[in-house]
Amino acid sequence: MSALMTKLKKLCSLDGVSGREEAVREYILSQLAASPAEMNVNVDPLGNVIARVAGKRRAARTLLFAAHMDEVGLIVTGITDEGYLRFTAVGGLDPSVVYGRRVRVNGHPGVVAGRAFHHCSEEERGKAVPLNKLLIDLGAENKKEARKLARPGDVAVFDSGFVKLEGRLFKARALDDRAGCALLLSLVEEIPEYDITLAFTVQEEVGLRGAKTAAYTVAPDVAVVVDSTTAADIVGVPEEKQVCRVGGGPVVSFMDRRTLYDRPLYDFTRALAEKIGVPSQTKTTVAGGNDAGAIHLSRGGVRVAAVSLPCRYIHSPSCVLSKKDLMGTAALLQALAEHLPAEGGLPPLDGVN
Question: Which of 145, 190, 320, 350 is the most exposed, having the fewest neighbouring CB atoms within 10 Å of its CB?
Fold first, then answer.
């Protein structure tokens, strides 16, 4: 297994629901400490990890690479007299992917519980059960026993392992966006050609909060946001709504619901991918969003590109990515790190000399 895949597998094993990214942060800090590059690493009050990395050459501008550490999950809101946990979602979760799933709360295994099919009315059958009708069953006999295992404010993650599939695909939870974190770490496995800054952000899934403060602190001239994005290349989805395809290469966005991306930078990134022999694609639907939505509005404005991994079943216990896409994205990010900080390496804004 490549070093990149090894890091990704480890990252996906760590709990890191939005606002509770401690385990992910500690692993990232350990990996940064092992890098041969000199860097100044800080953790800000929100929990973002910001690493200013010294390259072999000084950069003509501040280039920021950003990826978020957090994942969607559940948060405990109460405990029933029978010992079940009430909960709500942290981030965007489709109720249809929650019922009956294995979860972990403070390391304790559990199951998301609800009424069995034959106890549902005709109207309820065939419909996703609302989250407020579900509970987490840790096996506690009563409220007193459950309180020894969990309390309101504790979070639950999907208990879903890292598994290789056919066709160089693999599945795991939290690939959104532990894949981005692993890719950023790969940029400092060796000393980079130019100075770069890495931001591993918190609370993206609940409003791009970490990216807002990280971008203010770093004050970059240009930023590349690395994330996973929805791939709907499955049977039954019309071609025009498939957005992007697993195996089609890194996804370079021109627009989503939070950002209208810098067009010269978008064109440059697509052209660079072609130059280095990495197939790339773009999203065919304006949907979703990522940390770019906060970063491009920071201070006086930041030129931003988004390079994402096409991911099936995103925000579920079983996200699916392609190793081919992962390696292609790694190569494209490396090329961007070697071109954008260089003198004359950043394409000018349209109409600006």
Answer: 350
